[in-house]
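step=encode ok
step=design start
structure_in=
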């Protein structure tokens, strides 16, 4: 009696296993025909019996589910996240599946990153953060986590950004990478290539010279800088100071950490230390426009607009064709416009108010006139920048420069039609 019961039980387990395998095979066949909904249906039938399966069969199940969710997901984050979780489970159960899942994982990462870029551009920072973190969980590429943290900062989700930044520091991430570059003969511009082989082919063609390996800028200073500023924002000056002290002790000559320390000092109203550190940063390479540009960015981010404009102008003295510096000066100068317009809109219709309105309007026009040369030079350097075109067009309109307005509008319309 006992023997018969045991044999029956074994037959029952075998039947379940056979059923699972059959449904998974059906799902895999449906995937080959891009019938993703059908594949999910077969997998849903197999799922209740999954507990009796071995790890290899479970891995097959989760791999198939991941591909089905990815194929049917499009831009649906819920499905893309489900695919990421399924692929992760498959690899945990059977690491040998890594080669088989290489292409689907790349496609999944591309879908998540492209979606995150769109979300970021639309100001949907929480969704961008989630997608990039999910991509990191799949790819294990720390750059995904770095950009997830940046979006968390933009969305003012400071706890999440601190968590992600700390994860990056714990793994020793710096963001430094090697780039294969060469100089284009015709323009003298240094251009990067995806691989060393592509760079070498370009050099052999004769169009490029001076093949080099360039190391990209470390992101560690920026990470520590952001962390310290977040701690200050949260009122945790002690934590901010402790973090920066440890970082500077480890890398006392790191320019980016020095800048972070300067920004922290400014936030804490330690102007003397701020100025001292700024002088050291400039002294490290006084003829380098990049340093002044970066100092301008840092000063703008902590609200020191006048200082930022000064640094950008110094960068332009060293490199008059520094497009980013030209645009950033224009942006900061135009930032004065909002306050002037707000004051103009708050006025009534009395004689005194009308006189004040005219004064404010003249101040606004002066801002436009100060800004115009920077934008016009930037457009000369990059004639296809639609945002610069649009801003210039609006300025010309406000200043009643009708001929320039019509010319810029025609250029912008042509560019947008072409695009």
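sequence_out=
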């Amino acid at each position: 009696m006992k023997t018969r019961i045991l044999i029956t039980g074994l037959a029952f387990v075998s039947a379940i296993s056979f059923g699972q395998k059959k449904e998974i095979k059906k799902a895999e066949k449906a995937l080959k025909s891009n019938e993703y909904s059908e594949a999910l249906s077969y997998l849903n039938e197999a799922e209740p019996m999954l507990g009796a399966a071995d790890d290899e069969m479970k891995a097959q199940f989760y791999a198939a589910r991941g591909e089905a969710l990815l194929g049917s997901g499009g831009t649906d984050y819920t499905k893309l996240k489900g695919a990421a979780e399924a692929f992760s489970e498959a690899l945990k159960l059977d690491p040998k599946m890594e080669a088989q899942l290489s292409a689907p994982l790349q496609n999944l990462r591309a879908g998540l990153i492209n979606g995150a870029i769109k979300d970021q551009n639309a100001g949907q920072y929480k969704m961008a953060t989630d997608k990039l973190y999910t991509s990191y969980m799949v790819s294990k590429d720390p750059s995904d986590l770095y950009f997830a943290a940046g979006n968390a900062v933009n969305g003012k989700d400071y706890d999440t950004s601190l968590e992600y930044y700390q994860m990056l520091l714990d793994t020793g991430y710096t963001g430094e990478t090697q780039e294969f570059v060469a100089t284009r003969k015709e323009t003298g511009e240094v251009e990067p290539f995806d691989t060393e082989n592509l760079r070498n082919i370009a050099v052999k063609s004769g169009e490029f010279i001076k093949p080099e390996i360039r190391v990209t800028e470390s992101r560690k200073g920026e990470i520590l800088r952001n962390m310290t500023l977040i701690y200050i924002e949260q009122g945790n000056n002690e934590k901010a100071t402790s973090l920066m002290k440890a970082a500077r002790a480890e890398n006392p000559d790191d320019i980016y950490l020095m800048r972070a320390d300067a920004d922290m000092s400014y936030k804490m109203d330690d102007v003397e230390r701020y100025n001292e550190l700024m002088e050291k940063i400039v002294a490290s390479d006084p003829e380098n426009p990049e340093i002044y540009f970066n100092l301008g960015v840092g000063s703008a981010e902590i609200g020191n607009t006048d200082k930022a404009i000064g640094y950008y102008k110094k960068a332009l003295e060293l490199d008059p064709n520094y497009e980013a510096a030209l645009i950033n000066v224009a942006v900061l100068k135009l930032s004065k416009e909002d306050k002037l317009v707000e004051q103009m809109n708050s006025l009534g219709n009395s004689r005194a108010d009308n006189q004040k309105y005219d004064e404010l309007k003249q101040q606004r026009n002066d801002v436009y006139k100060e800004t115009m040369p920077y934008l016009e030079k930037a457009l000369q350097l990059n004639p296809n920048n639609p945002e610069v075109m649009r801003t210039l067009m609006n300025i010309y309109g406000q200043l009643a420069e009708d001929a320039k307005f019509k010319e810029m509008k025609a250029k912008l319309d042509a560019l947008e039609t072409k695009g």
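step=design ok
step=annotate ok -> The domain at 16-152 is CATH 1.25.40 (Serine Threonine Protein Phosphatase 5, Tetratricopeptide repeat).
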